[in-house]
Input
Amino acid sequence: MRAILFGPPGAGKGTQAKRLVDLYGIPQLSTGDMLREHVKNQSPLGLKVDAVMKSGGLVSDDIVIQMIEERTQRTDCKNGFLLDGFPRTITQGQALNAMLAAKGQQIDVVVGIDCPDDVVRDRAVFRRSCPQCGAIYHLQSLPPQVSDTCDRCGKIGLIHRPDDTLEAVNKRLNKFHGETAPLTSLYGAILKRVDGTKSPDDVTASIRSILDPLAASSS
Ligand SMILES: [Zn+2]
Output
């Protein structure tokens, strides 16, 4: 099963991706991890990436697609893979489709986690985390029992991450709507939407109702 998790930043893709990896035994492919690994190993692609990054440039879609192609040929991808955070543009989506088609493969399903902008904003703006143990709070729906104090470890002084400010969230949302959301036009009937405003467990259940039949038929 070759799957893509799709949705706005803050819809909970990361949380769901971890669960799906465990449920279906397929790896989550992160382009960030791949880039770091290639640079670290000084592979031919890694040397190219290193040169681009040192010159302050952006790694081209072409290099990223080559990395994904190489990654998907490893044995842990024999039952498929899960992409989360790629593709981000129509051009990347088309390049991914072309790369797979050349090998007689295709993306089987795109799970779109729907989450309205105001919910994404609300989650970020009211999110606080504990700098000591990593516990996450929401000032309205999951506040700490004592103001500004971690329930789990007692640390005083919860943190609001700089990328969770209204300004930063709006910037990510604008980019998503401008560049990424139009990708849905590439996927037609294989795009399945779930309601990302529900609890993480409910979202997982919705995703399973889509992926379980596919996993059963591809094994
Ligand atoms: Zn804590």
About this structure: Strands lie at 2-6, 28-29, 81-84, 109-114, 127-129, 136-138, 191-195. The radius of gyration is 19 Å. Residues 130, 132-133, 135, 150, 152-153, 155 surround zinc ion (CB under 6 Å).
